[in-house]
Structures are given as structure tokens and as C-alpha cells.
């Protein structure tokens, strides 16, 4: 789109310059007028697309307002369905598991963990009020049955006792953490011995090509995630990949707490 905009602008300036440029400039031909119209039309379209990408990027980083609570949360569940499945497949949960999800968004992963994976208990934390309201409403039966709980909290500072969870999952959230090392240290603290850490994330090169991700998303290479986990003391680190029709290559790194 940007290229078309510049080509249009270039054609217009070419047609209005040269030896008889003044005459052409003063009396633009029909083709010149068409080029101007197309250029302006595409330019407007480009600006609108950029505004939309910026809005979606901000909502993905933190769903907010009524749009966040009722629409973005549902969009996240649809868009991240394969990533969430991948994370849960690798987590391999059972009824004896206590799962903590960092950035529970629309609650898609939490719901699947409770229904399909038969996980014993799920706690979801998120920095977005809209997300927590949505999850509490969507999974109210599990919340009432004390099988689930959703709280407003930051992954960098978990309001959770030491060694209380058997698994921590972060699916499509690493890009938003202000300090990934601090988050992983917190996960290590709240995980029981042998507990599992699962991190699912987009390929860095795919993410860097997305206009919505220009809103402060931090992309990570697999080696960076793996070495960070290793430096903190996690063990049995391994990464697998899957191809997603919408999001391209997806990585899922798992590690266990010593
Ligand atoms: C792209 S959404 C992913 C949601 C969900 N995990 C999924 O896969 O659909 C990222 C979520 O992380 C939350 N988030 C961003 N920064 C966070 C942080 N520092 N701690 C906890 N949650 C955070 C956002 O509010 C948002 O709901």
C-alpha cells in the first residue's frame, strides 16, 4: 500500500514537471486528476489501515473498555486457538494439576484446560480489567465450583505463595512483559519442585512483519528464551514448532523447575 501511494505521488510529480511542466501543472489532464484521486484514495486507506493496526495492537497488549471486554477477548480466543492447544498439549495436564496462566486474555486456554485437559484448578492473572471481568463471567461455573479464579495482577509480581502450582503457561504474552527474566524468576518461585513452565510464542521474524506488533511488542528468538530459562536454573528445556495458518510458525518451549 505504501509503495502504491509513493508510486502515485511520483507519477503525479512527473506529470507536472519537465519543459512544459507549468502548463501541465496549471491544467492537469484527466489522467493526472485520476492519479491524484487514486493516490489520495489509497493514502486515506493506508492511514485508516495503520490506525486500525495500532488500535488492534494496543487492545492485544491490554484489552480495554467495552470493546476489550466483549470483542477483543473473543478475537484473542479465535486467533490464539492453535497456540493455546499447542501449549496445553505440551503441558499434558491432569486432574491433580494446578495451572497458573499468565495473561489469561479471553479465557480460551483456561476453559480448554478445565474441560478438555481436565485440569484440577486454574488461576488466570492479567493486567487488563476487561480481561478479568470477561473471564470471571465466561467461566463463572468453574469459579463458583472453586476450580478457577481470575485476578488482576502483573506477571512480574505474582500475588501467589511459593511452590503452589504444578504448571505455569504463558501463551502469546511474552511480548508484553516489561522484564521477562523477572517473570521467569517469579514463575520459578511459585512452581512446585518438578513443576512445568510452558511458553508459547510467535516466530520473531513473523511478528516483526506485522503492523499491529509495532505497538511495543518485544519479539524473542528461541535461543534467547531457552538461555534465559537455563540461566535461571530451569532444567529439561526443549522447544517444538507448529505451523499455524494465520500466524505462521509458532514455538512452544517447555522446561521443568529443579
Ligand atoms: C495477546 S493477549 C493473549 C491472551 C491469551 N493468553 C490468549 O492466548 O488468548 C495478551 C494478554 O496478556 C496480558 N498482559 C500483558 N502484559 C501483562 C503482564 N505484565 N502481566 C500479566 N498479563 C499481561 C494482556 O492484558 C492480554 O490480555
Your description of this structure?
This protein folds into two domains: 2-61, no CATH class; 72-256, Vaccinia Virus protein VP39 (Rossmann fold, 3-Layer(aba) Sandwich). The chain has 258 residues and is α/β, with parallel strands linked by helices. Strands 3-2-1-4-5-7-6 form a seven-stranded mixed beta sheet, sandwiched between helices. Helix 1 (2-15) packs antiparallel against helix 3 and helix 4 (65-79) crosses helix 7. The protein has helices spanning 2-15, 21-26, 30-61, 65-79, 81-91, 108-115, 129-138, 140-144, 180-190, 204-208, 222-232; strands at 98-102, 121-126, 148-152, 165-171, 191-202, 235-244, 248-256. It binds S-adenosylmethionine. Residues 60-63, 76-77, 80, 83-84, 102-103, 105-106, 108-109, 125-128, 131, 154-156, 171-173, 176-177 line the site of S-adenosylmethionine.
List its traits.
258 residues; alpha/beta; 7-stranded mixed sheet; 11 helices; globular; disordered N terminus; binds S-adenosylmethionine
What order do the helices and strands follow? HHHHHEHEHHEEHEHHEE
What global shape is seen?
Answer: globular
CATH topology of the largest domain: Rossmann fold
Major sheet: order of its strands? 3-2-1-4-5-7-6
- CATH H level of the largest domain: which superfamily? Vaccinia Virus protein VP39
